[in-house]
Amino acid sequence: MASEEFDVIVIGGGPAGENAAAYAIAGSNRTAALVEHQLVGGECSYWACMPSKALLRPVEVLGTARHMPGVEEKVNAYGLDTEAVLARRDEFTHNLDDSSQVLWADSVGIDVIRGSARITGVREVTVGERVLRARHAVVLATGTTASVPDLPGLRAALPWTSRDATNVREVPKRLAVVGGGVVACEAATWLHELGADEVTLLVRGSALLERTEPFAGEMVAEKLRKHGVNIRFGASLQSAARPDVADTGVGRVHGGPVTLSVSGDGSDPELTVDEVLVAAGRTPATAGLGLDQVGLPDHGYVTVDDHLTVTGVDGDWLYAVGDVNGRALLTHMGKYQARVCGDVIAARAEGRPLDGSRFVASADHGQVPQVVFTTPEVAAVGLTESQARADGVDVDVVAVDIDVAGAALSRDDYSGRASLVIDRASDTIVGATFVGSGVAELVHAATVAVVGKVPLESLWHAVPSYPTVSEVWLRLLEARPTAGR
Ligand SMILES: Cc1cc2nc3c(=O)[nH]c(=O)nc-3n(C[C@H](O)[C@H](O)[C@H](O)COP(=O)(O)OP(=O)(O)OC[C@H]3O[C@@H](n4cnc5c(N)ncnc54)[C@H](O)[C@@H]3O)c2cc1C
Ligand SMILES: NC(=O)c1ccc[n+]([C@@H]2O[C@H](COP(=O)([O-])OP(=O)(O)OC[C@H]3O[C@@H](n4cnc5c(N)ncnc54)[C@H](O)[C@@H]3O)[C@@H](O)[C@H]2O)c1
């Protein structure tokens, strides 16, 4: 077996892995290998964030146009042009060709190695016949894959996962979606608009988007229902039967009708659909990765400290960034961790102390922003009221409808709501949630306030421009009894 040496070896070429490799060698003559067994760019670029947002943007634009006098008269008779929407999606995913990402890797001095990697010893990674040795660090960035519950008949029915939904080629007319989380809500939104006439969400809990403020899930549910999506809460999938299964490829209907057995919500116990999309969370891609070779459990999320160093392994050489550490399953958080991790590797390689906040992934703890691109959008950062109370924080909560001039101007049917969770002791915001059209771009101001621990007294002087949706900040501050008085 050939043996090669690199300063840094990264396993997994998704957004987290790419950034960890780039930061670890930036401005130095260190070498890095990035091992990828599918496409450089990872789940995000080809099967997750990029295609899903490319599919959702036209839905939002059409929704706005349909509520804008002067425009609505021109568009109301039409739906989306499915072919054009899918073609634009394919442009964003580069038709599943990663050559531009590989060129970028090359340009920053990263060697891309194709193949499936596994750890075979301390600082040692094996890819097929090649044994790679790391002088300084090995970074795990293998991400997650879609979880498909082990229910009778379900896996045999070849259900859709998020990859099929984002890479849709053939829109099923009757669709069941298992789950009520982010993937379920977003996918139901675009698939319904692209022509899935009968969409049923099977949600085992009692709310959508359970990790957000309750009003967010309620507003998304209300809008989905208004658009004709059937949401069954308390509905538990028991089994699936698909007599005519066909492996037609990603994004195509996988055979004949599927009959689902559903219990718990008192509604029809049998549901027959053309396709079932399982959106029931993620499984870390650690099975077979050789974690047991270094004394770690051989599956599950990999636990790290705030330097992204894997806990339970001596020598500070093994790191894990992105989805695989289970801290925050979001691209921007994986890339943030990667920047911290790369800086830590560089500092340790150069014998510099880890002095300063740049070397600590502090935002992972209660300061995570997220945008859910549903109709309406949900944008949130930090803690919800219930999370803050569970953490023992004494909080005030203010919530107002987004009823400002900027909102009314942006579309005629604007309806939205915003809330702040305020730590009474420090008079700072520990959480913020916005629901409404276009709120995706509103959340970063809240992130700055949360991370910067900006006192509300100071925020009173951060004057939102008129007429913008951001004016809701003023309404929120006014809604707090003592604000600015
Ligand atoms: C439908 C959907 C939509 C999403 N939308 C958003 C969004 O809008 N915004 C957002 O922030 N997040 C979104 N996410 C989450 C986001 O996709 C993930 O958080 C992100 O991809 C994680 O990046 P990563 O680099 O950790 O892992 P991944 O992107 O999963 O990349 C891991 C890479 O490692 C490779 N790999 C795995 N094992 C090995 C091995 N043994 N050897 C070699 N290579 C290996 C894989 O092939 C893959 O390329 C979405 C997720 C889904 C499912
Ligand atoms: N816009 C975004 O930021 C975005 C978009 C999509 C996905 N993501 C990320 O991807 C991750 C995965 O998304 P997701 O929607 O798959 O997961 P999720 O954790 O958000 O939701 C999973 C849903 O499936 C349900 N569920 C879990 N196990 C089940 C079972 N056995 N039977 C029936 N229902 C079950 C849960 O109750 C929940 O409703 C999320 O953590 C999210 O952060 C982000």
UniProtKB/TrEMBL annotation:
Protein name: NAD(P)/FAD-dependent oxidoreductase
Source species taxonomy: Bacteria, Bacillati, Actinomycetota, Actinomycetes, Mycobacteriales
Pyridine nucleotide-disulphide oxidoreductase dimerisation domain: residues covered: 368-473
Domain named FAD/NAD(P)-binding: residues: 6-333
Key words, A-Z: FAD, Flavoprotein, NAD, Oxidoreductase
Any one GO molecular function term: oxidoreductase activity
One Pfam family linked to the record: Pyr_redox_2
Cofactor(s) named in the record: FAD
Broad EC category: oxidoreductase
Similarity field: Belongs to the class-I pyridine nucleotide-disulfide oxidoreductase family.
EC number: 1.-.-.-
